[in-house]
Design goal:
The structure holds two protein chains of two kinds.
Chain A: E1 4-6, E2 11-16, E3 19-24, H1 26-32, E4 35-39, E5 46-47, E6 52-58, E7 62-66, E8 71-76, H2 79-82, H3 86-89, E9 98-102, H4 114-124
Antiparallel strand pairs in A: 1-2, 2-3, 3-9, 4-6, 5-8, 6-7, 8-9
Chain B: H1 7-12, E1 16-20, E2 23-28, H2 33-42, E3 44-48, E4 53-58, H3 62-66, E5 82-88, E6 94-103, E7 106-111, H4 116-126, E8 132-135, E9 139-145, H5 149-153, E10 168-173, E11 176-181, E12 190-196, H6 197-208, E13 213-215, H7 218-227, H8 269-278, E14 282-289, E15 300-302, E16 308-318, E17 323-331, E18 340-345, E19 348-355
Parallel strand pairs in B: 3-13
Antiparallel strand pairs in B: 1-2, 3-9, 4-7, 4-8, 5-6, 6-7, 9-12, 10-11, 11-12, 14-17, 14-19, 15-16, 15-18, 16-17, 18-19
The chains are: A alpha+beta, B alpha+beta.
Chain lengths: ~120, ~375
């Protein structure tokens, strides 16, 4: 698996050629508590950086997931419709949300690497 | 931030702590809210509810004076019995809801944490030559809830299992003196246990040694009471909602109603009794979202034309029925179960259906029929 990059909103993004897979971090799922509902985008839509693309609801609260990249949604993890707890169990694996074909993969350069993200969550704990 | 006598237990168990009503309280333990919720429905869970207010009113005239602030029948409350009641205001709204039980000449109230100072100040005004008030700040309150709660606790305190629903008694649990009521806030059988703060940790650890019991936090407490259709003061009832609107008139006995032997005589009696006789213009109802998305507090409820006819007061996910559940207030013409409405969520109208409550059936202690 390629390197994960992170946003300050606790999303992760992983680039493979021109496809970016997006999800939320372990820290985020732990803060939210068990997810009970995930609303995924439709494939084919165009998304911009910062656009609210996924709605998530946990036992405690509602939240949204912003797109860290600009591009076209090419695939969504529809297994989450019936089993949103996959996000808690495996947030950076089976709990991915959607995949975007990006125009410029260099968008990811603006995101944090693992070390920078670990530093960020250390300040939050 | 205040701490309950069980704070040390929560941190030892790895609880996630959150501020609640001025207290640092466990919202969940590492097993998570869904597990804890299902644990209470299937077996038994132990809650720390020591943040709630406990106070005792005693002396010759206690029952009569308490009846001036509560629409309850306390003069005829049998010894060892508990009732659900509420303080009302002059407009007929609910200032706080509470449990009250009698042991001999002492009436003990359990009130919501966020209202306890105001409630205690009110009780203080009743005091005089014949009545005294004592806030029990040196006591903890534990709730042990679930179908296995009483038969598990029976091993530590014989006689618990025989208690009737809404009964109250003094009991010794593993050598520790306690006051036990057969009641709770989950829709399940169970008890609430009042214990000296100094004994609380010892008692809680002993109860957690019972194989049927797991610790449960405030997160599951909320989802359990919501599925059981029970009101949370501040969400589902408050100074602006009346007992009749809330569907709680069952808690007002006939002796305090129109033509009752002690009709009225509590704040807001005129409004509340008129509403019992004539009906309320809006009603608290259960709400089932047709889809999977939870509908939460303050979501607008809309009729077929998109006109707002009500509002959600509590909502979330119901782990026992594996679906979202909510309750809220609607104009009375929309309160019939089966009525189709919409709830505005993230600015989209989601289809919902008015339904009766509870969402998850109550399993309170019932007397077995004699063979």
């Amino acid at each position: 698996m390629n390197e994960l990059k992170y946003t300050a909103d606790h999303e992760w993004a992983c680039l493979d050629q021109d496809i970016v897979t997006i999800g939320i971090t372990d820290f985020a799922q732990d803060q939210l508590g068990e997810l009970v509902y995930v609303e995924l985008p439709e494939t084919g839509i165009e998304v911009n950086v910062g656009q609210e693309v996924v709605v998530i609801e946990s036992v405690k609260a509602a939240g949204d997931v912003k797109s860290p990249v600009k591009g076209t949604v090419v695939e969504v993890n529809s297994a989450l419709n019936d089993d949103p707890e996959k996000v808690n169990a495996d947030p950076t694996g089976e709990g991915w949300f959607y995949r975007v074909r990006v125009a410029s993969p260099s968008d990811l350069d603006k995101l944090m690497d693992e070390a920078a993200y670990q530093e960020l969550i250390a300040t939050l704990n | 931030m205040k701490r309950t006598p069980l704070y040390e237990l929560h941190t030892a168990l790895g609880a996630k702590m959150v501020p609640f009503a001025g207290y640092d309280m466990p919202v969940q333990y590492p097993s998570g809210i869904l597990f804890e919720h299902r644990q209470v429905r299937a077996s038994a869970g132990l809650f720390d509810v020591s943040h709630m207010g406990q106070a005792t009113v005693f002396g010759d005239d206690s029952a009569r004076l308490l009846e001036t602030v509560l629409p309850a029948n306390l003069l005829e409350l049998p010894n060892g019995s508990q009732r659900y009641s509420f303080f009302t205001n002059d407009a007929g709204g609910i200032v706080d809801d509470l449990m009250i039980y009698r042991l001999d000449d002492r009436y003990t109230l359990v009130v919501n944490a966020s209202n306890k100072e105001a409630d205690f100040a009110l009780l203080q005004t009743l005091c005089g030559d014949t009545v005294e008030f004592e806030s029990m700040t040196d006591r903890a309150l534990l709730a042990l809830q679930g179908p296995q709660a009483c038969n598990a606790l029976q091993r530590m305190s014989p006689g618990i299992e025989e208690m009737p629903f809404m009964g109250a008694k003094r009991a010794i649990i593993s050598g520790i003196p306690c006051t036990v009521t057969r009641s709770g806030y989950t829709g399940e059988d169970g008890v609430e246990i009042s214990v000296a703060a100094s004994d609380a940790l010892d008692l809680a650890w002993k109860i957690l040694e019972l194989p049927e019991v797991e610790p449960v936090g405030l997160g599951a407490r909320d989802s359990l009471r919501l599925e059981a259709g029970l009101c949370l003061h501040g969400n589902d009832i408050g100074p602006d909602t009346s007992p009749v609107e809330a569907g709680l008139q069952w808690a007002i006995p006939h002796c305090r109603r129109t033509q009752g032997s002690r009709c009225g005589g509590f704040p807001g009696a005129d409004q509340i009794l008129a509403e019992i006789n004539n009906g309320a213009l809006r009603r608290r109802v259960g709400i089932r979202p047709d889809g999977k998305a939870p509908v939460r507090a303050h979501a607008e409820l809309l009729d077929a034309n998109g006109v707002q006819i009500g509002e959600v007061s509590s909502g979330g996910f119901g782990p026992s029925i594996n679906a979202p559940v909510a309750m809220g207030y609607v104009a009375k013409e929309y309160s019939t179960p089966g009525t189709a409405l919409h709830a505005r969520v993230r600015n989209k109208p989601l289809p919902v259906t008015v339904c009766s409550m509870p969402f998850s059936p109550h399993h309170y202690r019932t007397k077995e029929k004699k063979e």
